[in-house]
Amino acid sequence: MSDLGETRFRALAERLVTLERQGRSLHSLVATQPKEVLGPLRALAGEAESIARDIGAWAAEPSPLASALGRHLAERARKAGIVLWLGVAGALAMTGDYAGARAACRSSLDLTAADDPERALLLETLGKIEFEAGDLEAAQAAMTEAIEIAESFADPARWADRIGAPKREMQVRRSMEGVSRSLGLLAHIALARGDREKYARTLDLAYEAAIKSRQPVLIRSIWRQRYEYALRWDASGAVLDAMNAELDRGGAPELADDEAYKIDMQLLRGQALIEREGYARADRRLKAALLAAKSPRERWTTRMTYGRFCEDRPGRRQEAIELFDEALAIGNETGIAGFIDGARRDLIRLLIAGGEAAERRRAITELDVVLRACRDARDGEGYARALLQRAMARFLDRDYAAALTDIDGALDAAANAQTRGAALTARSAALQRLGRDEEALADAIEAVSLFPERRRDPLGDGPGAGRDELQHIEAAYAAAARICARLGRAAEGFEWAERGRGRLLRAGQLISPAGPASSRDILPLLIDALARHPDGPAALALFSVGPVDTVVFIVAPGRPVREVSADFGEAQLQKLLPTADDGPQQWNAGLAEALPGISEALQRPLAGLFETVETCKTLYIVPDSHLHSIPFAALTGKGGVSLVERCATVIAPSVASLLECLGRRPQETKSCLALGAGGVGEISFAAQAKAVADLFVGKPEWGKQSLYLSEPEATPERFLAEAARFRVIHLACHGNVLAGVMDTLSASALQLTGGHLTARALIKAEGPWLQADLVFLNACRSGGFRARLASEVGGFRQAFLEAGAPSLVATLFYVDPDHAQKLAEEFYRHWLDGQTKAEALRRAQCSLRESGLRVGDWAAHTLIGRAF
What we know:
Elements: H1 3-27, H2 34-59, H3 64-94, H4 98-110, H5 118-133, H6 136-153, H7 165-192, H8 196-213, H9 216-233, H10 238-248, H11 259-292, H12 296-311, H13 317-334, H14 337-353, H15 357-376, H16 380-396, H17 400-413, H18 417-433, H19 437-450, H20 467-486, H21 490-507, H22 522-531, E1 538-545, E2 550-555, E3 562-566, H23 570-576, H24 584-601, H25 603-612, E4 618-622, E5 648-651, H26 655-663, E6 672-676, E7 679-680, E8 683-684, H27 685-697, H28 700-703, E9 707-709, H29 716-722, E10 728-732, E11 734-737, E12 748-752, E13 755-758, E14 774-778, H30 795-803, E15 807-811, H31 817-832, H32 837-850, H33 855-858, E16 861-865
């Protein structure tokens, strides 16, 4: 090698050392400052490739020293390039640029050979990016290849002649760690497609691989996912019993010395107890655990669990604050950062939401501590999130200018697209209060654009849109809709409200991503469908419930879109309605007592609806938030006239889902499946189902293909096996929204012979499978569901529409079986005589109402989906 060549060679080697050091420093900041490090990382990645090429030239020198050293340094430069492009991909993904992240990841892959063990990690990263971008096929392909490569390197025989036994074992463990992570994402892909069985199987394989990796954090993470998943779908309590038994034995053997695992298990068990056993029994259990706790970890865990329990109970907020304070004190005593951060986070959240100015001032003091720590750690994302919390406290104190200052600071600090979207949504709210509506609308629209459309994460701890992200999306769309309404742009406001509704329902897979929801011309499609309604023009009312008011968008053929608002918001609505914890009698009484107050509060919108239905026989209603629990037919306008007296009402989850239902056509064969199971006292639900079946037997065109099932044949399995071939499905049985099941679809259940038929069981991976034109659920609260978002629609409303049925009749009350049966038979008589489903239900309700029955008896049933 010449003197000139050697000088150049040494300069490149020194530059490579500097580049590696700079790369490590920048890589450590990707999670907190992705926007700032993106440019430098990209530049360094390109330089690393250039250095590898230049050094590679010296590797071809005839000198053995130059050749060996050149190959070594070229390999280091290649690996530096891989790591740097991986950092670029991570930074781009955090800012929401999935196309750029995908390209950066492929640049990294281009630097690897087919048999390179690092290729598995890169493919795993690419799979995550594809999942976030919503391309499940590409994600699955990347993860499958990653698993194949990692498994090949997990074979000890592959390393037998290359490295010693200790390093062989380390390589095997690293490879199995990659296999476990990739299997975990494949499990989430299966769940996103609705395949629960494959999710569970794949997660079991991921757990086995995690054990072989001997990585406690990974083992604990997958262990928690397995139990949390099982608890969400378990209605029997067997999973909780198994978890309790495992804890009594000292826990999973692989995690025997893992204190964090024991905390996770206690918290998960505490949450399951709260939801499954009811608050009174859970209160006793949690209080006993609190008194029995001895070690710092046990004391911290029990206080956090009990604090979260108390914060949800009326009148126990102060107790929750004291428990979080005690947990924070334990964290400060032990110096465990996880204890301090977890307790402070929950304490701040509770103080801000409390409604007391003194509590918010204390929250701001605690947030100042967090802000200093984030600033010292150069944690831009953490700093932005803390500023947004402080802005919320100031917003609630009506110091909108100060809140806006904090929000602007958060926007300057945040690079993550979701954090910026949340900040812009908050900024829109503050600007609205300051009377700057046009600016507020621009911020809301920009916030919407920052949230990529992707499937909802079913468990909240995997890839996909989690609850917090969906809440921000919901708020951004709602803000755009409401500002447009206030600016007199009703049609534009309607479009924003519906787009938001459709976006959230697509995340939960209630409506097809390829359906009308993806069209920006949904308003013309709707008006055309309403004008061509079989029984004459129909109208639609879309409700948007905000914190302090309700906006209703009214659409009718031949008229411009109108908006009518009422000073009646979410907080007032919640105060009037019963809670999900109330028993049957309290629920029925509370709902009936709430109706006059709700009618009074919504008089302006109701007046607009009564005026609209003077020329329309059918009114479709898209509710929002807790209005899903309301029997709209029973709401009264001026003079005490009920809506049922003026028109037929039909509920739709969204305009997009309604258009899908309107486009479905039933099978040609007229057939009825009537199933009855259980009873009350001397009343047999099987006999009631038989009476319905006889109504069809009396019609020659229906009777030949119909089927009647009673005990012991009326099982969930038999129903699922038979239901696909019938045009009408009628079930008479017990129903409820189970308090002890965390999953919102599994919580909605019908009691058949031998077990529950849950809403979750009706949703199949292959998509719609029913050919029914009508499903009638004559069971208590069969139209109720548990929701965690205002725009969310779940339970049997989601399940039967997603399974393919265009129309569902379900109940909002705990029904009297005699009165429910009378309404069902009256409905079928009118429908079989040629009335639309909506008109048949309206006439049946009017008949029972005129006989003097209470509102909970005549208005309990509601029609969801298509009116005809």
